[in-house]
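Quick one:
INPUT:
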């Protein structure tokens, strides 16, 4: 008789625990899972090694990027001693050389404003956007953190397509996974109260 009650007792103990485990993650939990602050080159490379690389490109990929170059600019944030910023800058430099797109930096204040307009949480540097040269208010994020060169090119291509009328849902699905590999904040010296 006593052993027949054991499943009920276990169920009473386990049910609240599994319900707590099944709850949706909080925004803070999601941010911790999606953002990867790195302070060393080894840590950055470890995270980059986990990022899937785009392998298939549409037939019009290179032609579209080359033809769209006079219309768009890539703008990114940076800050001193930020390894992912240096990495993204170098990759965008190679992209710029290949496809003739302009690339420039913007201030952290401008980045905060843009993130707020799009409803994105500010996660740190670097972040990169594509926008038409003629319209500073139409912006599409193409990188939150550094990324693989192929993925950056894909995201620039998709941004150009979206800005020329391709349905946003198609492009957004393809760009939905940003790496979140950002620079670690500088170490604080002294005690905090």
């Amino acid at each position: 008789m006593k052993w027949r009650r054991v499943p009920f007792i276990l169920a009473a103990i386990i049910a609240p625990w599994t319900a707590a485990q099944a709850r949706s993650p909080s925004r803070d939990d999601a941010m911790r899972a999606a953002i990867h602050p790195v302070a060393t080159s080894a840590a950055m490379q470890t995270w980059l090694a986990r990022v899937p690389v785009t392998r298939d490109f549409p037939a019009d990929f290179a032609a579209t990027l080359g033809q769209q170059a006079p219309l768009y600019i890539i703008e990114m944030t940076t800050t001193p001693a930020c390894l992912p910023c240096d990495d993204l800058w170098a990759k965008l430099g190679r992209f710029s050389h290949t496809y003739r797109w302009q690339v420039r930096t913007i201030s952290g204040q401008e980045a905060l404003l843009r993130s707020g307009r799009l409803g994105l949480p500010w996660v740190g540097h670097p972040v990169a956007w594509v926008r038409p040269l003629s319209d500073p208010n139409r912006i599409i994020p193409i990188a939150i953190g550094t990324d693989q060169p192929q993925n950056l090119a894909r995201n620039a291509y998709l941004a150009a397509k979206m800005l020329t009328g391709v349905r946003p849902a198609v492009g957004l699905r393809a760009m939905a996974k940003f790496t979140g590999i950002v620079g670690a904040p500088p170490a604080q010296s002294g005690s905090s109260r």
